[in-house]
Amino acid sequence: MSFHINAWLENGDPKLQIIDAQSKCVCMSWSYKAKHGIEETSKHELQNLFRELLLLTCKQDISNCRVFSAKPLLRDVTPELATAAANT
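RESULT FIELD:
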């Protein structure tokens, strides 16, 4: 999965947009919404940005995941189940 990253300033406020390169869909759009002079709001906005980036990363990892079927280890089952598993 690859992305196009657009980052710019609009009236002095940073904006970020991440687009899936293959589907051209916007995966994430973020704009800084700070109230001037309030430091706590700035911290909150940056936490929101990192949360969105983390969620996007998790989504990418999940979509790349493969599921394999696994048989139980013969030493971890009863002798009857081991015999049945060996016969399959």
